[in-house]
Amino acid sequence: MRSGFDAHVAQNxxxxxxxxxxxxxxxxxxxxxxxxxxxxxxxxxxxNEKDIGGIEKWxxxxxxxxxxxxxxxxxxxxxxxxxx
Length: 84
What we know:
Blueprint: H1 2-83
């Protein structure tokens, strides 16, 4: 009877070791997946920031062109008003 109990305890210990090993492996795998997901998100954020930077450059360029055209139109309209 004692040897059967000892064998059962030994089997339980082995089972607990196996479960602990599997849990540790799953923890590493989940951690790796989370890290990979964050890396993908950071890459996407960097890509979006570059796109936004390009749009902002166009915005300032168009604003400058509009300002220059407004200035030129004002100068020409003033010049024509003075000389007519």
